[in-house]
Amino acid sequence: MALISAMCLAIYSIIGRKERSNVSLLTYTFWLYFLSALFLLPIAINDFQLKFGSQEIIAITGLTLFTTPLGHTIYNAALRKVRSFYPCIISTQEVTGGILLGIIFLNEIPTRETIIGAMISLIGIIIIVYHSHHQRQHQ
Question: CA angle at residue 24 from 22 to 27, to 5 degrees?
Fold first, then answer.
């Protein structure tokens, strides 16, 4: 699943980077979200069960209308402005951010394995950014 997810993110990033010169960011993201919603609508309708209370509905609505589109739009904007590997490696930290938000807002204490995984991921990013910066200085 992780490999398939990584491949999908790579394809998503390549298409986003390629389309930067063909269409504006807002037009691109509009069609991206619209087509994604159409693709996922049959699955959502098939699996729809209203078991949520008002707090859950508010949270899901907030994710749907604000945070998810905002995050993806910022990601696509970054693909247009900086070297493509920066937004790609930073996007891997969505999980680390979720861990931190869980600690802060939900008082969830991560397991030792979770902490180790987040640290390995952060160390990997530091190594990649360091080598990229070091390589650019020698060019």
Answer: 110
Q: Is the CB of residue 70 less than 8 Å from the CB of residue 25?
A: no
- What are the contacts of 6-9 at 24+ separation with CB within 8 A? 9/88, 9/91
Say which amino acid occupies 35.
L
CB 38 within 8 A of CB 100: no
Could you give phi then psi for residue 29, rounded to 5 degrees?
-70, -35
83 Cβ partners below 8 Å, 6+ apart?
132
How confident is the model over 89-121, as pLDDT tens digits? 888 888 888 899 889 988 999 999 999 999 998
Query: Which residues, other chains included, contact 75 with Cβ-Cβ below 8 Å and sequence gap of 6+?
Result: 16, 87, 91
Residue type at position 4: I
Distance, in Å, from the CA atom of 127 to the CA atom of 135, rounded to the nearest integer, reads 12
